[in-house]
């Protein structure tokens, strides 16, 4: 005897969080059933495999029907089709838009295009995340990107408003959108030690300080694109390394104030010019899209790696960057104090965040 | 009383993309009522149009207001081609026609298309201005209130319970019209939806007229059904109980009626009870049933099996009626029929299942009648010729409704009702309560069924003169409230069937049967030990495929066997549970092409008034075979173990000697019973004798063949629900009353294909049994998060849509209860009210919190039930009555609770907004793409729920009570990738206020009344 049709419909839509997670993780019904079996649910409830199968099918059907609404969370809130308590709605949305660390590291900074989507099977086999789940996560990124890309106002707020996500998740999505828009390279081997959280933090810093929104809160794309004028002006910072006197003065100021405070004084002193050149050169090149993409590689190659090889501690880095930034203010010949601060405060935050094993 | 209907179209949202090029829609709306249509402007290029239309005004007479639905169609404007329909909304404006219900319908409605389902939502405001009209010959019946609830609605009291009302209307089914061949499925579905909506409206109006004629103002227990007879047409029929209801306004508490028997008058039966009708023997249950195939009956070509006997074993004490009126049944029938014609309202039937205290005096047992009919082939003139009489109903032009009465169907039902009436009389009862009617149709064969519970009622509640029924006065004094209804209404010396009668275990004064079967809810005052449980009997019988009369005859021949077996199963299972009474019994016989299915559901309980049931004894036929003997004793042990286990599970631990009950929740009746007992020592002896006899009297099952073996096995295969779960098919679960407000109403459907199995009765039975058991198991698993919980009002329906396909549909509500809260706490109010109910009338006025002394002190009302169900303290009850319920200001969609029960646990119904009666068709030509049959039906049922909720919310309500899915007809054609489903649901839209909100109100009633309602008070 086979059941052709087997359904259960509650006036309040019945949602099993465990099954929802299995569905989100992209498992087929039969895989989900065997995973549930392994969890020992039958022993706890005295049910049979048939019951489990039917229950899983029911939930999968429900989720399938809900998926259309989850694409536009505001619809889920206002629709009449499924009666779901608000707390449950929030859970559904939050979990649907949640993503895997392993996945996001693969995709972060890539163009959210069809080509990338085609490569998802590679991502899937590399990360062990099912292709279905990869597609959902990718589509989520792309959907959020498309909606907020050309919107005015705060990126995080826009995401929150349109996708009804929690503050934390909305911030993560802001980072994803920001990275995808500027196509920062994050996938190189040298960058593998960085977590998504590191990048998200950097993104937040850059959004706060380097985009149009940082100066004018009423322009299109204000949080998504870097402030071109600012990038243009960054060239002016070159004077710090081009003018030899200025460079020497800067170095001596920093060295004086760090003597006895920093554990790697000699290495710092020896490397000062290289480091300063690296930081200022990066600034002057940011006007080029390609250099923007390589921003994180440059930070790692030209600053983090030399420091690491000299065994700087995080505290050393913090002391150095703080002193390096403030000392520039006392250089009378250097006139771009505001610009310098806008640049260095973000660089400093990023480097400190990224400076770990 | 003409009126003005005003409609405003406000806005739409989430519309589908109708223009692929722009990904947008140019939507406008057509508003149609009767033959008048208005249109809004086109709102271009938007999926969220803001029409903000003017008020469209329809000037119509109230007859149309009652019959017609308001039809709102959303379309996409297309400059070059025809405008595409997006979907429709039908709004029943009936709730606006009586003053106490809703005043405005306003809210978001899902836009529904029969092919695509819900496609966005539309915001509509509807109002009605009625002008008073004193025309006595009016055809409308505005103002008559309808309730699906089968008890007196919570905020009303019954002044008079008038009695039975029925009506049916017929029409040709548009689906079967020739034009259907050139019509699109959408047009056909919409024609059908509209037609049924019209017919329901018309039916309700006609019933309303009858109600006014009977001087009532409401119909309670209104049950409307559709018979999709296929080619022969479409029947919409309804039954209900006419009442005069009074809205309870100021009084905190209404007095219950007391000492009802004082008013009883001895009225003899009008007719001589046919002495021949009561020959019923359980051992030979078939003997006393005649299945007459009587071509002589001129009114219809029929094969009628008036099988009513329900094949009771005599010990059941169930009303078996006369199956075979051997003594000139035809004559009797004719006489009854003429009478029927003259006194249509003479059916003393009540569709109510719960009653005001004191209303129900005695219960006789279940009475039922079935009849097999052949549907007329109206398209075939040859058939008409054969029939030899004029077609009994004229085909209606499906656009006009002023044609003749549909006589045949009326006659069929009248016949069945007469039979029910005579069965009730045979049981010494003058009335039938918990009455319901149903049909099962397969091709041209139709089984009509009616069942109810024979009862003796207190005439106080029935208007003088209306009830000509006879009341046999048996008692000089009041029966004890807890057991009176169990006492036999029939004469002990002249019993309709042999049965074991024993003196009531409670009062020791009157005789009771050893087992009681009823179709009603457990009366609130009934004294019960332990908890109840759902008991089901399931049965399949193969039948040869046959045509027309031969088919009808073979069905008629099978019916008595099925009824007998269903009852044996019920009896066995009841005994296995260690219980002695069934409530809410519903036996459904479904006819298919090659089989008949029987499904009986009831709630078993242990009534303290009835004796402890004997066990089940197995007897083998070949006693000398040692191995066999061993097997039998093994089975016997298993059965005994099961009984013991069940007794423990359901907490059935009746005291050995009833007098020693300590801590009984009903001390009052106990005192009374003692009193009575001391008065009659002699009868006490008899009681003891009977008691011992009852215990010895085990139920003997003979296993003389494999069939019987199967039966025993199947008895033992019913698995009890997992710990923490209880189930019943009645409103309240005996033994549980500490409900929380956590409820989940659900519908579950399973369709099972019996392919690849050898079709025998055994395999069929096993498959059917497994199907039902697995379905229950699945429910327990799904609802495990609600433990401890009880599935209430579990309603199974079986359909046989095609060969070897069984469809089972279950609707029920799961309610979580608080297991830690002592039962006694919630019992207290019940007890109090019971005591109150039995005090003198004059005392009522001294009720401390009564707001104003209501002069109608002696009116019946069921405070006991209300209190026990809602676990409110009786004091809290009155306070909130006058509070206006604040509208929900929440921006999100407001929550609408749905339940098949007449109440929402933990909440109080403050207002009834009107009846919800909706019919939907959904069809698909892309079944696979919609997730197959499961995906299709899952989505559709969810859509139906959504549309019900939206309508209730638009009426200003936040709950649906007495919700029922009356029909779920599902057809598929996988080869064509097609499926179609019809669903009919109904219920009462209400406003409920959470009890916790009630309790916050200050104690002084006066302040409570004047207190302004604050937002957010509504239970959501």
TrEMBL record, chain A:
GO terms for biological process: platelet aggregation. One of its GO terms (molecular function) is fibroblast growth factor binding. It comes from the Eukaryota. Pfam families: FIBP. InterPro entries: FIBP. One of its GO terms (cellular component) is membrane. PANTHER family: ACIDIC FIBROBLAST GROWTH FACTOR INTRACELLULAR BINDING PROTEIN, ACIDIC FIBROBLAST GROWTH FACTOR INTRACELLULAR-BINDING PROTEIN. This is FGF1 intracellular binding protein. It comes from Chelonoidis abingdonii (Abingdon island giant tortoise).
